[in-house]
Amino acid sequence: MKKLLTLLAIPALLVLSSCGKDDDDSIVGAWTITDVEVVTSCTPDSPAAKQAVKDLVYEDAGMFSIGITMTFLDDGTFTVSLGSLSVNGTYSYANNVLTTMVDGEGGNTQAKISGKTLRLSPPEDEMIDDSDIEEIEEEFGVTINSVKVAVVLTRQ
């Protein structure tokens, strides 16, 4: 179960890091995932194909993330919690880039703090497998140009 939580948390964690400030721009503190936004561009435009991509993201990394709490400490460590399950790691946050490391795996994610909202934007290739995109393209007769995902967290 710990491995499952780690796998679920990594897309969101790829964005997070800390500079240890105590103001509104600091990542230090507890954050809860409140939304996962998906914006898809395809040619020709197809609401059904866009919904299929959104459903895929939600199935793979979205809906289960709602309610996960991420707590960043000023010592460069963090904990991701969902109920009684938790995963620990290290992070850094500078220049709107969050770098995380969990169990030897890590990465970078774009992170933007605005007031009590933190938006993590993982790289597109981290969220959806090419084979899944190809299946959607074939099913709906479209070309998927881009998929932008943002994990939205609210400061507790």
Give structural notes.
By secondary structure, the protein is an alpha+beta fold. Helix content is 28%, strand content 44%. It has an 8-stranded antiparallel beta barrel with strand order 1-2-3-4-5-6-7-8. The longest helix has 16 residues, at 47-62. The chain is elongated, with a radius of gyration of 16 Å. It starts with a helix and ends with a strand. Mean pLDDT is 83; it is low at 1-8 and 10-22.
Number of strands: 8
Rounded Rg: 16 Å
Rough outline:
elongated
Please state the structural category.
alpha+beta
Tell me the span between the first and last alpha carbons: 25 Å
Low-confidence stretches: 1-8, 10-22
Strand content: 35-45%
Helix/strand order, N-terminal first: HEHEEEEEEHHE
Short description:
The chain is an alpha+beta fold and 156 residues long. Strand 5 and strand 6 form a beta hairpin.
Blueprint (SSEs and pairs):
Blueprint: H1 2-13, E1 29-43, H2 47-62, E2 69-72, E3 77-82, E4 85-94, E5 97-102, E6 105-114, E7 117-121, H3 124-127, H4 130-140, E8 143-155
Antiparallel strand pairs: 1-2, 1-8, 2-3, 3-4, 4-5, 5-6, 6-7, 7-8
Helix pairs in contact: 2-4
What attributes does this structure have?
156 residues; alpha+beta; 8-stranded antiparallel beta barrel; 44% strand; disordered N terminus
